[in-house]
Amino acid sequence: MKKMNVRVQRFDPGQDEKPHFQTYLVEVNEGARVLHVLHAVHDEIDPTLSYRWCCGSGQCGSCAVRVNGEPVLACMEEARDAMTIEPLKLPVKKDLVVDLEPALDALSHIEPTGSAAMPTREEVELIKPLRSCIGCLACVSVCPAMDVTSFAGPTAMRQDFRLALDPRDTKDRVTEAVSKGLFTCTSCQACWKVCPKDIQIPGKAIEKLRSLANKKGLTLPRHQEVAKMVRETGRSVSRTEPTFMEQVGEVIEPHGPVKATVGFFVGCMYNQRLPQTALDAIEVLRRNGIRVIIPKEQVCCGSPLIRTGQLDFLDTLKRRNIDAFAFRNIDTVLTMCAGCGSTLKHDYRTPFRVMDINELLTRYGIEPPARLPLKATYHDPCHLLRGQGIRDLPRELITQVVNLVEMPSVCCGSGGGVRSGVPEEAAALAEKRREEIEKTGADIVISSCPFCEFHIMEHTDRPVKNVTTLLLEGYREKDRKKAENTV
Q1: Of 66, 99, 368, 371, which sits most exposed with the smallest number of CB within 10 A?
Q2: Which string of b and e fits 229-250 if b means at least 16 CB within 10 Å?
Q3: Domains in the chain, ordered, with CATH?
Q4: Band (115; pLDDT cuts 50, 70, 90)
């Protein structure tokens, strides 16, 4: 047995003006789950505490709560001392009990016909990964799109795609999904990462529904324009100044001994819109012993097409990009765009290893930069944090230069085609980012994704910089001080 202190959010809408926290000291067995702690509070200390539970074995979803801010099943999450237990981010009925009905009512139900054929083996295999949902609504509680726009939510999209695959269902689930906000998903993947059954809703349901919508001619006009640009120019955005690849040669040697040689997949935004940021990154790489090869034949990775369901031209892009690096016998391809990196890692089958620039710099080590008298906050790009599982590495680099103050890791609204296709939603999510940035009191905002950087800088008065630009500024300050001391 062991004792632990826990904080539990309490709120009775009929009596309380606002939620408050209450701390309890409980004694539970070693290895106890969060649900056991709630039982101990209810049975031994405070029988007025309200919470849901049923099976106690991770199969019914009824005990979903947030522990230290993250949605979990109380019956499966191990209890920890000093943890905070809150309800899901849904309307609270009492304490930890939330109102599930609106989201569950949005789920479609099969409408069969007596003459429909049974699903084939192939159809059953496609449906299987979507059937394990237990209706806990953890995914709904973390969906940023649902906070700012009319969207039925990830669970509803999963259900619509499941029914779209089932030949026994008679309704047009694709058109129905579009009417429920199919194109408002930002592809942030928060729903997938909190799902206790590991259902990859963005990739396995929403993007597939968007592909079916494309075949029906339901793709948003702006998304069609982006696909047209990719087919005609090889890039998903237009140029605004001389591109990065126009300003550099194919091989860039480091200033000192060579630690590693990498191919650089530049990405559309850093090549066309933010070339100076890519040039900053090259300077940091050169300073740290990295030889960089930049194949000029490379084109868009295809992420904007995948996320919006426009797949006809995708194989051509993949072939051109893989051939460009494989022809040069490059075994490591470097990305600094979170979306490109995630796409190359998960949507391609490459003969080379793909590494994000934060991974590369951390692996080979960097020359210590000078510290700058600034306070920074870091915005986690969705396709880096959740798409590639990279959280700590950029922070390790940033904190070598400035003091870092954290803010919640929430989507800025630039992904999934939302910035181009549903700009009012993208702006609303960016406004939420602005509010969180201001709460930190930071002087600057740091990120590691061109879409995030470009989008956020339109919605904050703080400078927004890439991790590598910050490092370069630290090196320049170091060089300035060294020059002063040698005079």
Answers
A1: 368
A2: bbeeebbbbeeeeebbbeebee
A3: 2-99 (3.10.20.30), 103-215 (1.10.1060.10), 237-364 (3.40.50.1860), 375-486 (3.40.50)
A4: confident
